[in-house]
Every structure is written in C-alpha cells, then in structure tokens.
Amino acid sequence: MAIPEIYSYTIHGLPLQTGDIICTQDGAIDPAHPEAIRPGAFWLRVGRLVPGEVDHIAIYLGPGGRCIEASPRGVICFTAEGGEWNAIKMMTARNLLLDTFYGVAYPLEGRGLSPEEERRIRAEVSAYCLAQLGKPYNFNLLNPDKEKAFYCSQLAYKAYLPYGIHMNSEPDIRVLPGTQRIVYPQEVWDACPHKKVATPC
User: Are 21 and 104 in contact (CB under 8 A)?
Assistant: First the structure.
C-alpha cells in the first residue's frame, strides 16, 4: 500500500513537514484591525493562565499551509497562507482564536528513524489527526487519554504516543496539585527538538 505524500512548508522561515508541531502564544493585538482587539485581549488573558511561554499548538498537515488544531469549538482544519502566521486573516476560520507564532517543535528529529519509518509515522500522525476532525473540545483537561474530545496539546500527545514519544512528562511547570495529567503546550515544546522564531509574529 502506498504511503500518502508528506508535505513541506515554511512559516516565517522555519521549515515544516507533515506532522511537525506549530507552537504559539495566545493573543495578537493589532490596532490596525479594530475588529480583532477585543478577541486579542481575551486570548492574552487566557495565555496568562497557561504555564510556560507556549500557550497553544497546531499540527502541520499540508499541502500548502493546511494545519489542524483543537480549538475552543472543536477539532478544525485551517490554512496559514503565504508562509506567514497571520492570526487576523485566520481568525474567522479559527473561531476567533488569536495568537502569535512562537516556533516549531519536531517530534521525530534525532530519533534515528530511517527515512521510510519517519515517512510512515508522519503519514499515520496526519491520518490520526484528520480522523478527529469535527470532534468537540475537551474541557476536562485532566483526562488527556479520552478520544471523544480533544484540547490542543492533547491532540499531539495522542497522535505521537503510539510511537513512544511521550509529551506529558515535564514536572517543572505544574502550577496546582493534581494537575500532573494535563498535557500543557509547553510540555510539547520541551519534549521535542524545536526552533524558535527570532521575534514572535
């Protein structure tokens, strides 16, 4: 059986392949776009509640700038056009989610995989994520193992867990007792080799 095509793309100069993880910070306020000021301010406040510098993640699928994420209204696909993370342009497709591009995490980098094995995993991660399309948001952050609903970092965690890549293991960012089961976006960033954009945009 033929393995589906693996796509390549860049966002703000950082390379991506199918299955790589886009990491962002909540909030994006641009006075030139008054319609975005209120949701941008809201997401800035949400970001302050999330421990670490990374507040949200999406997974690159391709072709072009097609990505998938678990947004507040469920698992959706959207497109980052022109090699840029323009949260204002993507705001409607992403249910008013506004954020700034922070960097890219590379879950498969440095694992000694053959090109064929890496390609297979990327294709399977993409297929897993697409199979969750339309599922609701998981408001029970303490249950990252359910598959009837997803939050952003849980989607990446579940997609990569079958390959021995565990993204829920960073004890230093726990903010409250009993929150160890939450998969924070910062944990996804810390669990993988990554590249940070020079200036968040």
Answer: yes
